[in-house]
Amino acid sequence: MPYPDRHTYPDRFYPVVDSVAWVARLALLGVGTIQLRAKNLDDGEALQIVTDALEAIKGTAAKLVVNDYWRAAIVAGAQHLHLGQEDLAGADLAEIRKARLTLGISTHDDAELATALAAKPDYVALGPIFPTTLKSMRFAPQGIAKITEWKKRIGNIPLVAIGGIKFEQSAEIFAAGADSIAVVSDVTQHADPDARVRQWLGQSAEAA
């Protein structure tokens, strides 16, 4: 079940955070697409955090994307899911589609892109574009040129760029062909996160 309009999902500014508090904060700032990526939770913990995050965005324009925990997303009534390659390998795509969840998939090389496209995703994420210190990456930075190459290959499927991207690089990333930019540390580790979010939202509005 593809999202009704692939060109509006995910939003151009796509922050990725690890707590309900961050989800609530971003939703109140007017962020349209927020990914909740909380690692190493058991089934009960995953269901609780997804349920709480969905409650936190009620009454706002935000869409919550659940990273990894597809079972919890289904049970909690989420609408959007993101899977890494390892998560994808262990997921039940039939159940995910039956629950009418949109599906985004992470990719890092040609083989992973082929795997992702076989799953008919609603968007593909490419990364890391630049070096990132948030987690150990077994893949080298992809660089901006790879964005243009992959966008040509995937056509009208939205392409999300992720990995070490700061606001100051956003115009170049969009110009290279990215439909959306996923942002982690440029928000969560910024000295003034709210002001940074407003910068991103302003840039996205200007480009719309």
Give a written overview of the molecule.
The structure is a single chain. This protein has 208 residues and is an alpha/beta fold. The protein has helices at 20-28, 43-56, 70-76, 85-89, 93-98, 110-118, 144-154, 170-175, 185-188, 193-207, and strands at residues 13-17, 33-36, 63-67, 80-83, 102-107, 123-126, 159-162, 180-183. The chain has 10 helices and 8 strands. The longest helix has 15 residues, at 193-207. The mean pLDDT is 93.
Break the fold down into its secondary structure elements and pairings:
Elements: E1 13-17, H1 20-28, E2 33-36, H2 43-56, E3 63-67, H3 70-76, E4 80-83, H4 85-89, H5 93-98, E5 102-107, H6 110-118, E6 123-126, H7 144-154, E7 159-162, H8 170-175, E8 180-183, H9 185-188, H10 193-207
Parallel strand pairs: 1-2, 1-8, 2-3, 3-4, 4-5, 5-6, 6-7, 7-8
Q: What's the gyration radius in Å? A: 16 Å
Derived structural class: alpha/beta
SSE string: EHEHEHEHHEHEHEHEHH
Continuous helix count = 10
Contiguous uncertain segments of 5+ residues: none
Major sheet? 8 strands, parallel, barrel
Termini distance? Answer: 25 Å
Overall morphology: globular
Strand order of the largest sheet: 1-2-3-4-5-6-7-8
Mean pLDDT: 93
Helix content: 40-55%
- Give the strand tally: 8
Q: Beta-strand level of the residues, as a percent range?
A: 15-25%
